[in-house]
Amino acid sequence: MESMNAFVSDQEISLASTAPVHSEFGQHCGEFGTHRDDDIPDPDDPDYDENNVVKLAKINGMVCDAQYASGALCGKSFGLDGGAGQLRRHLRTEHHIDVPPMSRRNINNAERNARRVAILGRVLRGEWRDAVYTMEPHTGPANGLLEKFATTLEEKATNDATFRATYGSQFHRRPQAKTPKTPGSKKRNAFAIDDAPASESPSKRGRGGTRGRRGRGGGGTSETPTRRRSSRIQTQSDDAAGEA
């Protein structure tokens, strides 16, 4: 089996170490623009903001890198087949970033090479590994360049001490990194058991009121204390009868 190191040449690594994430063909990866909470961009609108237009390369990493005000990126991934149009619509409708229409026709080798170097550079420099996303992209699209480059570079680091000393040994995203909540989202406790309104009948909160929760600090409706009280009353009655 051929080593994956052959997937990336030393020349590409040298070029990628300082390559930007964009080229003459557009943005291949990295920050795609700033998320906005206003209306979906319309070029015919008098208030149209030309500064929030992103020229997205026709071939890119297929992970949404729209940036929130907090500095975190979106992280939603799209499939390699037909995902370019979905990513464009996502940027427009979810983040209100205008992206001119894209076509995957007439993609030449120069554009393919530019994409490879741009994405390889983001992975090589650890930007992909350390990026903070609101929606964890993990390895990115299955069999995409982000995943392939990260795997290839980690294999190279294992076998090449010089490369490892220069660039490190981990290129996939850090599994221990915690993802912040998406702005405006509210996480609901799926295990909450006391969501019923106070006016709701007992029969809806339990069968005849006999399946209450155990109280916190003795304030619940558990059946156990009731049985214990009944036992004490019966014992006291028996004692009283014996004394009589």
Shape: globular
Work out the strand percent. Answer: under 5%
Q: What structural category arises from helix and sheet content? A: mainly alpha
What is the number of helices?
A: 8
The ordered string of helix (H) and strand (E) elements is HEEHHHHHHH
On the 0 to 100 scale, the average pLDDT is 75
The tally of structural domains comes to: 2
- What is the CA-CA span between the terminal residues? 96 Å
Helix content: 25-40%
Main sheet attributes: strand count, strand direction, barrel closure: 2 strands, antiparallel
Which regions have little confidence, pLDDT < 50, spanning 5+ residues?
184-244
CA radius of gyration is: 30 Å
- The largest sheet has its strands arranged as 1-2
| Number of E-type strands | 2
Describe the structure.
Residues 184-244 have low confidence and may be disordered. A hairpin with a 2-residue loop joins strand 1 (22-23) and strand 2. The chain has a two-stranded antiparallel ribbon with strand order 1-2. The protein is built from eight helices and two strands. It has helices at 10-16, 83-95, 109-124, 127-130, 145-159, 161-167, 202-205, 223-243; strands at residues 22-23, 26-27. It folds into two domains: 4-167, no CATH class; 202-243. The chain is an all-alpha fold and 244 residues long. Helix 5 (145-159) packs across helix 6 (161-167). It is globular.
Summarize the structure.
Helix content is about 35%, strand content about 0%. The protein is built from 8 helices and 2 strands.
Topology:
Elements: H1 10-16, E1 22-23, E2 26-27, H2 83-95, H3 109-124, H4 127-130, H5 145-159, H6 161-167, H7 202-205, H8 223-243
Antiparallel strand pairs: 1-2
Helix pairs in contact: 1-3, 3-5, 5-6
